[in-house]
Design goal:
Blueprint: H1 2-47, H2 53-66, H3 72-86, H4 93-107, H5 120-130, H6 135-151, E1 158-162, H7 169-180, E2 184-188, H8 196-199, H9 212-220, E3 226-230, H10 243-250, E4 259-260, E5 267-268, E6 274-279, H11 287-291, E7 294-297, H12 303-321, E8 328-331, H13 333-342, H14 350-370, E9 374-375, H15 380-402, H16 417-420, E10 424-425, E11 431-434, H17 439-443, E12 461-468, E13 471-478, H18 491-495, H19 506-513
Parallel strand pairs: 1-6, 1-7, 2-3, 3-6, 8-11
Antiparallel strand pairs: 4-5, 9-10, 12-13
Helix pairs in contact: 2-3, 3-4, 5-6, 5-7, 12-13, 12-14
């Protein structure tokens, strides 16, 4: 029995020894592979052939930071985030959050400014090229440039253009940016209900992003752009906060030199940004926000101004859009004046532009239906290139036919786009001028006939003026006697009564009853 027990113990010892040797061999092999791989990475890194993904990312961030003039506070935050990134594993969720933050931090234009243009004659030419009239706005911009020329630097301002639709509030912002030589960025806040759109999200949220202002700086890559905030009078308010209150810090010249975005969490200098806001009315803008802006009112255009705008800007643009560029098709001055007085009486020129575009579209239809337009002749260079292409295709087809293994069926090639969309032109011998008497066939009957209902105003009728944010119009106020006042003892008949009709405001109704 003792011999049997010894044999079992010997077998167990041999088995344990074999298992331990196998395990040690596997461990030593893995250690050896790991050691060799690390040596290989180190050698490649020293030779510059390959580097670790995380180390390469950190080097890229540091190289971007060296090219930027970061403030000391921002530089300190950057160094802390880079140190944190170096100790994080790429598989960790915090790694992507930190990487995205460093990406935004190094993509902002710290210390970059576009060159200011203080040339007053050029600025005047640029403003006159793009817009007719609007002398108040142009004068304010020229004052802005003159002050900057005297001081040697231009500080940011907050302007607010208030006026009815279609008077050029948004487009004048682009012209101002072009006159000043600044980058232009526009975003609309109409219906905005989330404060995070202005001040950004906290980095703790999934998919967090900075606010619109920081995104604008990243897009334009300069710290002194012109930011156009459109429809500021239509700000919403929801359970995510009040965006109008969030704009108070942004549009305050005393505070926006250290604007704090929730995502960036570092102060961003917006003191050299020129903010231009647009609104239709000022009634819906909160008082504290309105107090921070310089209001410039654009009341609209007169009839002679609309005539000049139509002939200089709207008609050439509509003509080009209708494919009639270079053709002898035009609108007479009487036709434009009739359009202004009988079809488009609003303060802006947007409706006038639509009517002019409609006229040129119908003129293009008339030209095509009459068969006047002819195809544009193909140039000699294009013909030579086409012949070369055809000969090459024939040679290729011949070579393919000589090969016995080639298939006889060939795929149909799509037709050339230039052949499918061949351009047409109107010959110089054709001319068309739309007169005032022909407007009815192009845009329909007149919408407005006359402001005057009476040649001679009768007793009890007076002319009045109505003013709204969309413009204004003349109207008649008429009074009718319901009953005569007599000297009877009846108190109601002795004093008489006054009834008012129409959509009168509460103040006017109260005044009429006193």
């Amino acid at each position: 029995k003792a011999l049997v027990v010894l044999k079992k113990e010997l077998m167990n010892a041999q088995l344990q020894n074999k298992i331990s040797k196998d395990v040690e061999a596997k461990i030593s092999k893995r250690q050896r592979d790991f050691y060799l791989m690390e040596q290989l990475k180190g050698i490649k890194r020293e030779l510059g052939l390959e580097s670790d993904g995380k180390d390469k990312l950190i080097e890229q961030f540091k190289a971007k930071a060296l090219a930027l003039a970061m403030p000391d506070e921002v530089k300190k935050v950057f160094d802390e985030e880079v140190g944190k990134l170096a100790h994080l594993e790429p598989a960790a969720s915090e790694f992507n959050v930190t990487r995205n933050y460093l990406d935004w931090l190094t993509q902002l234009p710290w210390g970059r400014f576009s060159a200011e243009d203080y040339d007053l004659p050029r600025a005047r030419v640029v403003l006159d090229e793009d817009h007719y009239g609007l002398e108040d706005v142009k004068q304010r911009i020229l004052e802005f440039i003159a002050v900057g020329k005297l001081r040697g630097a231009v500080q940011g301002k907050i302007l607010c253009f208030v006026g009815p639709p279609g008077v050029g509030k948004t487009s004048i912002g682009k012209s101002i940016a072009r006159a000043l030589g600044r980058e232009f960025y526009r975003f609309s806040v109409g219906g905005l209900t989330d404060v995070a759109e202005v001040k950004g999200h906290r980095r703790t949220y999934v998919g967090a992003m900075p606010g619109k202002v920081v995104q604008a700086l990243k897009r334009v890559q300069t710290e002194n752009p012109l930011l156009l905030i459109d429809e500021i009078d239509k700000l919403g308010r929801g359970h995510q906060g009040d965006p109008a209150s969030a704009l108070l810090e942004l549009l305050d010249p005393e505070q926006n030199n250290a604007f704090l975005d929730h995502y960036m969490d570092v102060p961003v200098d917006l003191s050299r940004v020129l903010f231009v806001c647009t609104a239709n009315v000022t009634d819906t803008i909160p008082g504290p926000l309105l107090d921070r802006m310089e209001i410039i009112r654009l009341s609209g255009y007169l009839a002679d101004e609309k005539l000049s705008i139509a002939q200089k800007y709207l008609a050439p643009q509509a003509k080009e859009a209708a494919g009639l560029e270079g053709a002898s098709v035009s609108l007479s001055d009487e036709a434009v004046d009739a359009l202004v007085r009988s079809y488009c009486r609003e303060s802006g020129v947007r409706n006038l532009k639509k009517h002019i575009e409609k006229i040129f579209r119908k003129a293009a239809l008339k030209i095509i239906e009459s068969g006047v337009a002819v195809p544009v002749p193909v140039s000699a260079e294009k013909t030579g290139a086409a012949e070369t292409t055809d000969s090459a295709e024939k040679a290729e087809a011949a070579e393919t036919a000589d090969k016995p293994e080639a298939t006889t069926e060939t795929e149909k090639k799509p037709a050339d786009a230039s052949v499918l969309a061949q351009r047409m032109t109107v010959p110089d011998s054709y001319s068309l001028e739309v007169s005032a008497s022909e407007l009815k066939g192009y845009v329909g009957p007149p919408v407005f006939d006359s402001d005057r209902l009476y040649d001679t105003t009768p007793a009890g009728v007076v002319m009045g003026l109505a003013w709204t944010s969309m413009g204004g119009s003349a109207l008649y106020i008429e009074s009718v006697v319901e009953a005569t006042v007599n000297n009877s003892d009846n108190e109601s008949s002795a004093h008489g009564r006054l009834h008012t009709t129409g959509q009168l405001g509460d103040v006017m109704k109260e005044s009429s009853t006193l």
